[in-house]
Amino acid sequence: MARPEAGSDEALLRSVAAGDASALTRLYERHAGALFGYLYQLAGDRMAAEEILQDTMLAVWRSAAAFEGRSKATTWLFGVARRQAHNRLRGRSGPETIGVPLPDRPDQGAGPDEVAIAAAGGTPVAAAVGRLPDHHRDVIALVFVAGLPLADVAEVLAIPVGTVKSRLHHARAAVAAALTAQEVPE
């Protein structure tokens, strides 16, 4: 295996594995925006996405030595982020309420979907994407929000590239159909 260039993401991960906190800071600075965008699409909530991003960077700090260089560092980072998101969001029924008094009435405010759509400008496209199944939203977020190539998306999701292409096609078709039903030009 070729030795990573100094300053490359792969070299930074090796430095993180050796305990270099400044290397983790540089990785964060390089990738936080794309990771946050992806996590926000998964979580649908800014605060949750920020927490998952912090969980992700902590997991990178703890497991950088597990990076073997068989994939790109960015692919590995998005894989860590995806696992952290699914761990946090799995079975989530709402915010943690231990020690917090619950109100007598349910909150009549906007739910997470409405807040996410409003944060995205309330666009019909955002609403249509928000209604996609998780496996289609994952692909949309990794391709269009994170900007990963299809091969990297396949690696992050541990599925064949053909499946990524199929899910992307079906997601686009579903969004187009939703926009057509609303008579919004594509």
UniProtKB/TrEMBL annotation:
<dbReference type="InterPro" id="IPR013325">
    <property type="entry name" value="RNA_pol_sigma_r2"/>
</dbReference>
<dbReference type="InterPro" id="IPR000838">
    <property type="entry name" value="RNA_pol_sigma70_ECF_CS"/>
</dbReference>
<dbReference type="InterPro" id="IPR013249">
    <property type="entry name" value="RNA_pol_sigma70_r4_t2"/>
</dbReference>
<dbReference type="Pfam" id="PF04542">
    <property type="entry name" value="Sigma70_r2"/>
</dbReference>
<keyword id="KW-0731">Sigma factor</keyword>
<dbReference type="GO" id="GO:0006950">
    <property type="term" value="P:response to stress"/>
</dbReference>
<dbReference type="InterPro" id="IPR007627">
    <property type="entry name" value="RNA_pol_sigma70_r2"/>
</dbReference>
<dbReference type="InterPro" id="IPR039425">
    <property type="entry name" value="RNA_pol_sigma-70-like"/>
</dbReference>
<dbReference type="GO" id="GO:0016987">
    <property type="term" value="F:sigma factor activity"/>
</dbReference>
<keyword id="KW-0238">DNA-binding</keyword>
<feature type="domain" description="RNA polymerase sigma-70 region 2">
    <location>
        <begin position="27"/>
        <end position="93"/>
    </location>
</feature>
<dbReference type="Pfam" id="PF08281">
    <property type="entry name" value="Sigma70_r4_2"/>
</dbReference>
<dbReference type="InterPro" id="IPR036388">
    <property type="entry name" value="WH-like_DNA-bd_sf"/>
</dbReference>
<keyword id="KW-0804">Transcription</keyword>
<dbReference type="InterPro" id="IPR014284">
    <property type="entry name" value="RNA_pol_sigma-70_dom"/>
</dbReference>
<feature type="domain" description="RNA polymerase sigma factor 70 region 4 type 2">
    <location>
        <begin position="126"/>
        <end position="174"/>
    </location>
</feature>
<dbReference type="InterPro" id="IPR013324">
    <property type="entry name" value="RNA_pol_sigma_r3/r4-like"/>
</dbReference>
<dbReference type="GO" id="GO:0006352">
    <property type="term" value="P:DNA-templated transcription initiation"/>
</dbReference>
<keyword id="KW-0805">Transcription regulation</keyword>
<protein>
    <recommendedName>
        <fullName>RNA polymerase sigma factor</fullName>
    </recommendedName>
</protein>
<comment type="similarity">
    <text>Belongs to the sigma-70 factor family. ECF subfamily.</text>
</comment>
<dbReference type="GO" id="GO:0003677">
    <property type="term" value="F:DNA binding"/>
</dbReference>
